Structures are given as C-alpha cells and as structure tokens.
C-alpha cells in the first residue's frame, strides 16, 4: 500500500463536512422532487397536505444543514450533484417497471427518506466523535422529524391508496 502524505490524509472533520454536503444534496433533490410532483398530486387531498408540510420541513432542514456547514467555516455550494445523480440512477432502477406515477412518487419519497435517516445517523456518529454537541442536538432533531414524517406516510398510505383507487373509476 502506498504511503500518503499528511496533507493528503482526510480528517474526521473532512469526512463530516463531506457528509453534510451530501445530506444537503439529498435535501435539495427532495425539495425539487416534491415541487415537481405536487401539482400532479393535488387531487389526492391526504397526500397533497402531507407533501406541503414536508416541503416546509425540507426547506427548513436544508437551511439547518447550510447553517451547520457555515458554523464549521464551509459555505454550502450552489449545487452538489454527486448524491443527487446517484439517487436519480437508483430511483430509476428501482421504479423502472412501475407504470403508475403516483405510486412511483410515493416509493421514491420513501427511498429518499430512508437515505436521509441513514445519512443523519452517520452525521450524528461523526458529530459525536468530533465533540460537536450543538450539531448533535440539531441533527438529532432533524432525524426525529424525518422518522415522524416517514411514520405519517406509512400511517396514511392506506388512505392515500384508497383515494387513488377511487379516482380511477
């Protein structure tokens, strides 16, 4: 194995900042997705209400991640494409055979949320290791909000599906 110079080695802080950037990218992509899907879901009241609430939450989460980046002297970029590109590829593979766009949207949303929760879990571990206690409280709250939100989707899924099926007739 080749030896790396001290300046080329990545620190735990570097990893933490990269993960924050990746998390910001998925939040940004999710906001874009919700904005594009919202008009098509307007006739599904339960889903539309939840999507509007989630959009507000997503925007607040993106702002909080930007704040965490700024706190550590790293301004958030205008766009961070890596994770968004990967998730687009994964999403298209997962849903390529799905004919229904509403169900595809719900599955994509659940996929994004699962990724976000796992991302927050990693960020919490890194922040803990680095001793960033104020970051920990923010990240814990964001994870709690994500878990609550995905729980609401799962709870409302039967109503959303019933509403969808009744609109098919």
Automatic annotation (TrEMBL):
Transmembrane segments: none annotated. It comes from the Bacteria. SUPFAM superfamilies: Ferritin-like. InterPro entries: DUF892_YciF-like, Ferritin-like, Ferritin-like_SF. This is DUF892 family protein. It comes from Gluconobacter frateurii NRIC 0228. The lineage of its organism: Bacteria, Pseudomonadati, Pseudomonadota, Alphaproteobacteria, Acetobacterales.
